[in-house]
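[Automated response] Your request has been received and processed.

Submitted sequence:
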Amino acid sequence: LRADPPPTRFNVGMHFGLTGRGTLTCELSGQYLINEQQVRLGLRCAQNLLRVLGMWPGEPEGTTEGPTWVDRAAVIRVAAPQSGLFVAAGHEPGGWVRKGDLLGHLLSDEDLATVPVLAPVSGRLTTYGCHRPNCDVALPDQHPYATAGDELAAIMPV
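Generated structure:
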């Protein structure tokens, strides 16, 4: 029994839970930072769920590559060398980079210089872009302005 009143706004999964029914809720893509790779994975996941349920023709499709295990202690973080606007070079989170690949440019707000930001190691991008910790719930936190030391990318070395 719940002592608190039910929420006035809720999703389908919450509705089923509040009415005593089971539910399986899947988030098939990001919230605000949606990229092409996430959309492809989410679409394949939805199609595979429908195939397993017999609602879509064909057999479930696997992934083309295995998982990357992330050791948080081993992740290399790439920080903004100075303050400015970070212009990403078109990579996506989850993508691969080689040591020396261009991650983007920082347009300095001190002297308007263009500072290249390069991958210090080869590996998989676990994060990419100048985003603040709450960028999935606060749109201003997605702005590409970086202060010196802000994280621009994180790479799991291979």
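Summary generated for your ticket: The CA atoms of residues 85 and 145 lie 4 Å apart. DSSP finds two helices and eight strands in the chain.
If you did not submit this request, please reply to this message.
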